[in-house]
Amino acid sequence: MKHYMIVFLRSAISYIILLLFTRFMGKKQLSQLTYFDYIVGTTIGSIAAAASVDRHIDVFESCFSIVVWSVFTILISIITLKSIRLRLWIDSEPLVIINKGRVIYKNMEKAKYNMGDLLMQLRNKDIFYITDVEIALLEPDGKLSVLKKAEKSSVTVEDLGIQKPKTGVMVEIILDGTILYNHLQQIKKDEAWVKEQLKIKNIQDIKNVVFLGVQADNEVYVVTK
């Protein structure tokens, strides 16, 4: 009976500490698990589980370890809000896997992603032909985001009697006040064009721009602080 009471108390302490710091770390742990989040969550969970049942492990040392891991995770989250370069290094950025029906194999190799994975995720989205895909992006959380070609997408009421508009994805040009020059090259624009767009929208300081993207119809979409 004493043994079970000890396990109960150790489990209760671990549970409370884990609950508190899960709340502090935010809901991203539940909704958008990247590789980094997955590793952190698994490690903290393993520490808590070991502290609950292994009497050779000091429960307070384990709780202190959970606190250290949680604090570092919170600090990294705060820093990545300020630094886009660190955020992209930790969480990575979406990779183009299919472009206009053509598989970009070098990006698949970079992501350690094989054709079986690709075909399975396409089938999960009711897509059985790669040539039906306009663009497919492998997100940092491992999910595949897919945009079908215009002629393969479902017809809506808005489409009836009108020509199907050109499809595409919004290209990110500015994130958190930083110009993404490789994305700028994709749309064949330069920094002077970016400054002109900001001027048109009466934005004086690029640091006030949280997001600037260009849609397929060349419409510029801006979010400012």
TrEMBL record:
Keywords: Cell membrane, Membrane, Plasmid, Transmembrane, Transmembrane helix. Residues 82-212 form the YetF C-terminal domain. Residues 6-79 form the YetF-like N-terminal transmembrane domain. One of its GO terms (cellular component) is plasma membrane. The keyword Membrane applies. It is a multi-pass membrane protein. It comes from the Bacteria. It is found in: Cell membrane. The chain crosses the membrane at residues 6-26, 33-53, 59-81. InterPro entries: DUF421, UPF0702_alpha/beta_dom_sf, YetF_N. Belongs to the UPF0702 family. This is Membrane protein of YDFR family. The lineage of its organism: Bacteria, Bacillati, Bacillota, Clostridia, Eubacteriales.
